[in-house]
Amino acid sequence: MPLLSMMGEDSENPENFYLPAQSWSRRVPSPPRLDVPPTLDLKRSPGIGVAPGEGYDFASTGFSNTHFLSAFKYTDYITGHEIHDWKYTNRWEAQRILPFLYLGPVSAARSRAFLDDNGITMVLAVRDTKTAAARLLASKVAIEMNLAYATVDTAGNQELIAAFPRGIDTINAHLSAMYHQSQGRDTATSPGRVLVFCESGNTRSAAMVVAYIMAMFSMSVVRAILIVQSHRFAVALDDDTKLMLLTYDSILSAKREVLHTARQDSGGRSNASLAEHMSPSNVSRKPSKRTLDDSDDAMDCDGDGGINGRQTDEKREGAAPFRDDAGY
Predict the structure, then answer these.
(1) pLDDT tens digits for 125-164?
(2) pLDDT (0 to 100) of residue 268
(3) Is the pLDDT assigned to residue 3 strictly greater than 50?
(4) How many Cα atoms occupy the beta-carbon half-sphere of 9 within 13 Å?
(5) Please, are residues 194 and 100 in contact by the beta-carbon 8 Å criterion?
(6) What is the rounded CA–CA span in Å between residue 227 and residue 190?
């Protein structure tokens, strides 16, 4: 942008000589895109897969009912790459993402043969509220087979970020209960298996599975998406959903940091007990809102414009929009 257009007509006043600190654009502001590279072979790129022996700290996730994950033998976590053998008709089937987690369309949830052959013990539908009201994504077969049936309903894709914890807790609660029922048996394979589905198996339910991998295995958005796409090539997450997952990644990182700090302050108390203590169900009451008088009392301003003896600009973050011209 020209300097004179920024300074206005009074260009002779030295106080008006400021330059933009960043390059400006006249286009409508838009969020940055999250680029996901082409899906790679998990066996040739083990850094992308959920590999055994990485020492995942499931207790630090802040979610409950994660102890069953530590009891599994992770030799089955690196599964064969399926992209090279992918066929268009595979989009109407469900694929195994993790030993206990499957992703697919509603047709898979209605297939008695698929549910029985793969040992599915729970189906989780991720639905739009309008679809739920019309009962378009119901699975009568799962109910007839006495399988656990759960739903996560949201009014739009943007509300999924608030529904992710509920879906993750639902999956873990079921798998934890199934694990306790199978105590003493061989745990090389999961005693419980969950099918997460939506209408196509490529959007809402895929985002839920990506969020689960991010939360449980502390993985980045890109890595989690690559894992899911490596097994279900038909997954198609739009830019808004990717940015929503990126925001959820920031929430998970902040949650882990809070648990880590609380653990240090508590003298080494386990993350699992801290997570249980900090869960919403164990909070006795919400803290009362601060009044205007409380805010005034809390801000002990000094005469120099600082707060508690510190200049306010010392804690400011980010970049200034303008900078002084070098000539002034």
Answers:
(1) 999 888 877 677 778 899 899 999 999 999 887 889 999 9
(2) 55
(3) no
(4) 0
(5) yes
(6) 19
What is the Cα–Cα distance from 123 to 193, expressed in whole angstroms? 9
Query: pLDDT band at 7, cuts 50/70/90?
Result: very low
Lowest mean pLDDT among 70-74, 169-173, 190-194: 70-74
Closest alpha carbon to 280 in 198, 162, 191: 162
Alpha helix ranges (H) inside the chain:
3-7, 67-71, 106-109, 112-117, 129-134, 140-144, 160-181, 204-217, 221-231, 239-265, 271-278, 292-298
pLDDT per position as a tens digit, 114-136: 999 999 999 999 998 888 776 77
Specify whether the CB–CB gap between 8 and 16 falls below 8 A. yes
Side-chain-side CA neighbours of 66 within 13 Å: the count stands at 21
Instruction: Provide the whole-model pTM.
Output: 0.72
**Contact (Cβ atoms closer than 8 angstroms) between residue 99 and residue 77:** yes
Distance CA 66, CA 164 (A): 16
Burial label for 208, CB within 10 Å (0-12, 13-18, 19+), is buried
Residue 26: both structure tokens together: 């006249």
Structure tokens belonging to residue 324: 């002084």
Q: How far is CA 320 from CA 120, 143, 230, 316, in A?
A: 55, 59, 42, 10
Structure tokens, 239: 């830019």
Q: Residue 327 to residues 17, 23, 62, 93, 323: CA-CA distances in angstroms?
A: 9, 20, 54, 68, 11
